[in-house]
Amino acid sequence: KQEVTQIPAALSVPEGENLVLNCSFTDSAIYNLQWFRQDPGKGLTSLLLIQSSQREQTSGRLNASLDKSSGRSTLYIAASQPGDSATYLCAVIFGYGQNFVFGPGTRLSVLP
Amino acid sequence: NAGVTQTPKFQVLKTGQSMTLQCAQDMNHEYMSWYRQDPGMGLRLIHYSVGAGITDQGEVPNGYNVSRSTTEDFPLRLLSAAPSQTSVYFCASSYSPPRLAGIEGTQYFGPGTRLLVL
Predict the structure, then answer these.
(1) I want to staple B109 with a disulfide (CB 3.0 to 4.6 A). Which of A4, A15, A43, A84 is the partner?
(2) DSSP state of B103
(3) CA nearest A96 in B: which residue?
(4) Would you call A48 an interface residue with chain B, using a CB distance cutoff of 8 Å?
């Protein structure tokens, strides 16, 4: 079964730290991978999209990398801020699939 | 431009009751979908639609019905609610299916409906 996992389930860091969130997927034949942010009581917001042919994407303080051979993606957040506190979800489109398979998310708390 | 709207925000049902979760978008998106989110699990796709009159099943369709009579609306029906359907439900829309990368495939999510079935 094609699955997406994210470890840890929760992470708490002091403001200003650089941090890495992890996403693992069971099948290396992916089409693309997307990172989302979810704020409490709200829907998801797209952060970064990585095509299967790409190794990384950057947007501001965020950098997402993709290593298909090892079945992993990482989301790097530089100089974290309290406003970064949210749940971060990884979603993968496998092979010829049309829709995302979501990971369970990592709940991030950045402490002032 | 209201984006994706969902009603109600919160609902309590008794086992066996029926209800409809409403989803509407004003962005002229062809693709719409319903997900459920449970603790410790990722969002799971229930049903999706690639345009008016066309719907298909996702990963967890049992117990749910959908129809798409207009581009704007994509209601989700629970015919006989069960405690296992207690969850948070999200509707999403985009110009194209998520597989199509870039702006066209970017999904916009509603704020969610929290459903409790007793």
Answers:
(1) A43
(2) G
(3) B99
(4) no
